[in-house]
Amino acid sequence: MRKSTLIVALGLFIVITGLLCISSENKVYQKERYFNNPTEILEQLQNNKLIVFNQKGEEQESKQFSECLSLRKRIAGSQIYYETISNIKLQELTDKQKKIIEDNYKNSIKKIKNYGEKNNIQAVRFTADVTRPIYTYKSDVEHSDIKSKVIDMVFVDEGEGTVIDYFIESSLDEDNNIEEGKNNVKG
Known about the structure:
two-stranded antiparallel ribbon
């Protein structure tokens, strides 16, 4: 091969690689709605499906649910795998309970490199009835029974309005009390 052919091939390789790297395709959902407070987000969660299935049959967060999530949750995944949330009942938290939830949140984000502490942290606890999608061997989707859960959520302001950035799901015992030490999901 001649030197000029090699130089042209190398130049084309560099140009094509550069164009592919600066592609404008963005896979992270861009928010379109601004929420002023956690109550608006909880209304959005209660009135819409959280999980939907794409054309390939893969589970993904719905557009309405993605509007409620922080950038971190939109990139890494929400870890909230409910198909629906209904009958949301807010619970009053003591200052001590709020501090525990907020401290758990702050400790979890300390582990994330280059992720700074957010503004206007608000901890909320509520009970709700949830359903999860269940898959059968035929790839059909069935719906689980409705189960009552206690959910702690941390809402933050990222400059795009209030969003969900952390949650803990707990189970209830027969007396509708939180089963201590039985946190099913954290994230």
